Amino acid sequence: MSGHVMKGRILRLCQKELRETIRDRRTVMTLLIMPLLLYPLLSMALNRFLLTSGARPTNVFLVGVATEREGELLRSYLDDPQSAPPDSVAKSSGGGIAEFDIRLSEEIDPVDALYANQIDLAVEIKFEEPPQVIITAFRGDGGSQNARRILVERLQWLRSNFAQHVAKMLAPDYRPPADIVVDEIGQEDELPLLATIVPLVLVLMTITGAVYPAIDLTAGERERGTMESLMASPVPRFYVLFAKYIAVVIVALLTAMINLLAMFTTLWVSGMMRFLTGDDAFPLIAVLQILGLLVLFSGFFSALLLCLTSFAKSFKEAQAYLIPVMLLALAPGMLSLMPGVELSGPLAIAPLISIVLLARDLLAGAFNPVGALAAIVSTIGYASAALAVASRLFGADAVTRTSEQSIGSFFHRPQKVTPVPSVESAALMLSLLVPIYFVGSNGLMRFLQIFGDSVSLSAKFWLNILTLLLTFGLVPFVATYLGRHRFRSTFRLQMPPLLSFVGVILIGLGAWTLAHEAFVIAEAIGIGGLSEERIEQALGQLAAWKQVPPWLLLLTFAVAPAVIEELCFRGFLFSSFLRVMSPARTIVLTAVLFGLFHVFTGNALLIERFIPTTLLGLILGWIAYRTGSVLPGMLMHLVHNGLLEMVGRYHEHFQFFGSDLDDQAHLPLMWLVVASAIAVAGAGIVWASTREVKVGQTK
User: What is the pTM of this model?
Assistant: First the structure.
């Protein structure tokens, strides 16, 4: 057999194995869906943690006092230069001096404010001779304990310096016991966070991508009974295994690359990149370096996993082999976090350990060329040895007669037109919508942070509409087109009874009170709530929005969300879920998804929006089911949002909103009764007008 023919067969084998692997849905989930969903959610959760934990600069502490007199006296103590530590002591602590933000707590006792985590310290001053300062910290809270220690030290320095001043006045020959001088030697050897975290992440990324295809292409072949057909193939056993190896390497490499790009993109658009690299800029050079390292990681792990799975006779047995390996692989990854471990000597050729240390040194910007070369060569040698062992263990088990479909056929439009999307199509659309929405909303924020001063307020509103259109509008539209679903039935665009439009207008006029009460109740039970800073920001936005025309405000926050969001949630998703779920479950599921997407705003989790938005989603879902159309829900959504925006714009004309908005208070009882009656009347009209309609079904 000529070399040209053999190369052709090997190439066809590689294409076949890769095609069969990538077409598997479980591989697609690991390769594409999981990283696109995981990193935005982790970033938003981390941002929410930073927001709710009241994170502030570590050298600023909040101190609560009960009276202005106490605050003025404490401030005079801290502003006195004699309370500052000597330069030598300050230098030993990094050179900075902690700051104290003294706040007057009139409505609540400072100790109660400390219990509520509103302040770091509670201070009470008894005006005696001399004044007695009582400092209260929260037991078990490291920040509060640290604030108390620093405040006590500041007051002690004040007392000490005052005592020394008096001593010098009374005894001119007085000298302090000792002068303190602080010095340092040596070179700082602290690795950047990027160099310590990424090597461990690379291990997890590549293992995750390689495990399933390695099992499926070896033990899976045996379990499916396709080994015998491979023996009939006129290709050496090693070439068959090599084709499987190439498929596993490519899948592992693609998985790691998508994870890597998703991670860095998420950190960059959310403004959290500085925590990893110390800079907000996208680390393009570091990403390119890591991509080169991924080839080594993928090649090594793929060979190792194929070698181990070649022992197994079933899927379960292969999983039992690989679980301990996955756990053991984390140990070398942890070496990147340990100081003093260098890529030299035996560690330069130790399996896996060498490439982990190489990744750490490369990202740190300083590596030993000899050790790096040894790590690369030894890793290639270990991978080759693992493949040689696997080829001996691996039976005659490569199949050549499989489906003639190509990888691209996975993305082809189906031949048959369907009325509505399947649940699988809806799940895929949702999984893509999460990262697209996350990148779109955060990208808009990043753009406004950089160019906000040069962009007019009206232009910002148009950008908001464009972002909404490109996410909740474009993604379902493309999914409908690619899935070859009918647009009219998918988005439920049929015309409902005209009287139902009257009913939904009344519901929209009254439902806002339910949303407001739900928000207040959620805040009372500890779910979200607006801080004073957030309320001030909201009021500032309301004042700024008065500069734009009312029609643009309504278009941005009423018309665009009403049309685009309803087409997505009560159109595409509702029609898909209603195929396989009961109406009640469909209404609840779409409402919960509606609430969750409003929680995922920007790069933080705004939990306080979940309950009122989900409640609104339940009402909209019921309207969509009763009328069999998305159009009445659009109108109700528009009226609801438009009323809230107009009230916010002209809130100073309403006594309630002008005086009690800051208190997040319940609405007056009369407001609730009237608004509820209007909403109930509207619901009655919708119900009565749709009695002749086969509710929930498309026409």
Answer: 0.59
